[in-house]
Structure formats: structure tokens, C-alpha cells
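Translate sequence into C-alpha cells.
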Amino acid sequence: MATLAEIRARLQAADGTKSQTQQGGGDNSIYPHWNMEEGASATLRFLPDGNTNNTFFWVERAQIRLPFNGIKGETDNKTVIVPVPCVEMYGDVCPILTEVRPWWKDKSLEAMGRKYWKKRSYIFQGFVRENPIADDKQPENPIRRFIIGPQIFTTIKSALMDPELEELPTDFFKGLDFRITKGSKGGFADYNASKWARKESALTEAEQEAIEKYGLFDLSASLPKRPGEIELKVIKEMFEASVDGQSYDAERWGQYYRPAGVNAPASFKDDSSDETTPVTVTAKAAPATVISDFDDEEDAPVASAPIQTPSTSTKKAEDILATIRARQQQVKQ
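Result follows.
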């Protein structure tokens, strides 16, 4: 388990790197704090990562939401969203962000850039000590996972950098509870009132027994599997189709990535997958990755524009991208 000093050092290093580069499963262990009523609060107690090689007690998830103009073969053209992993979280080059990053330099393309930009969230684990969600179904294993958006994460992180904090919040005997409070601002959920408890507390005997019995999750296992060459080609193809305003083609892409509620194609059926769990994907006949938006708008950057329904276009995606690239060349000249 990393010390508080090690966590602070890693956070400072990450912030330094960021400032230098800015120039350029269906498993009810997931606790749905976003389902709380406005004004309600839930008290959580975070636990360390089961992976002792992780300095932090969370892992970062990055995904890109691809909007499609309905689903091919269906009469309803309502926008559907297909989340795909952004491979920058694995240290790889993301084919979508490689294309999108220069868009931010052109004011006319900035809205498109926001639409296809990566969305960050953070996966934690721990106990729910006070639960205001009446219909929440607690699993047999009381150790839950939490998908935390950037707004709440900022509050968590800032407290860790406070020099007056002497013990890790995840310490079994001197740790701190975290209280998530749901409010509303501008029609969206707001969690700015969330905060750490002021007093330390020990885990209860029952909580310690649960850790002994079930163990801790390796949080990295909650992330979608690192896409291989085939998946990266599929992601790029889906991105271009999305920009083109096409419909989502389940027969074409459903084996790899699909929106919640859409089944795998008839030629590929995997009963083990579901619509809320990141599912392992391999190059051959693997379950499709379906990453649900557990924390909804909270997962998106504050500046993100609402996703608009793509208009039907006769242009090919490569034509649109060619136009964008031509504008970028003009800017460079």
C-alpha cells in the first residue's frame, strides 16, 4: 500500500506533466450514487486497490462517446451513443484524438472537438455506510465499486494534498469517510457540496470481516481491455461513420462495441456479456465492450457542449475529415 507522501508526490508529478502538455460489469457491486434524489447524501468509505502496485486507491478510465444517427435497420432515428475506450489511458496513441486534437485550433471546429473528446472518470472501491437510495440492491459482497466523475474527484484529490491530512483516508483504523451530496446547477447534477469527514474512524468489525472474506478488487480489472490492432481499426471506422452522420451498424460493429440495450449480432452471441459491464475483448470472437455512462453528465468536462443529433449527410466521412484537414493546413500556412 502506498503512503500518503507517495500519493502526494505522484499527484504533483502528474499535475506538472499535464501543465507541460496542455499546449498541445452488469454487476450491482457498482454503487449508483447518481440515482440519489436531489439534496440527498451518501456516506462512503474508500478502500485501497487490491493491486498493490497501484500508488493510488483509484484507477482512471477514459472513454469517447460516439453519437450515431439511430441504428441501421430501425425506423427510430433517435441518437444512440456508443462509448469506446480512449487508448491514451494505456499510454497508446488514440486514433480519434489524433484526428480531433487539431480541431481545437479552429474556432469553427471547436464544438465538434468537444463532442468527440475523451471523458474521464475514476474507479474506486469501498463500503457504503449511509445509503439514501431506497431501491438499491446491495450485493452479497458489501465492498462496492464507485465510478466518480471529475467534479467529485477534484474534491477528493484536493484534500489529499492538504498538509494537515496525516493519515491515508483508506487506513483501516484512522481513515476518513467521504460524503457525496447531490445538488443541481443549470439543469445538471452538481456535487460541489461533497466533502471528507473531519473525524477519523475505524472500520467496523463487520467491514473488516468482509475484506477478509471477499478480498479487495483489482481496480484495473474494471477497465475495458486494451484494444488490439483490430479493435483500433474498428474504433477509427466507427468514428468516421459517426462524423459522417451514419446510423450505428450492429452487424458491422456489434461484435466489438455497441450501445447499451443492443444485443450482439446473430452471428455472434455471447450470453456472458451485459449492457453495464466493461467486457473483455480479444481479436477473435470476443464479447463486445459495452461501457455504460454510470455517472451520466458528471463524467463529461464542464465545458462540453451537449451532443446534438447528427444530420443525415450524403458526404462520406473521409470527405468531411478531408475538409477539416484542409482548414488545418490553411491555419498552419
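Note: The longest strand covers residues 119-130.
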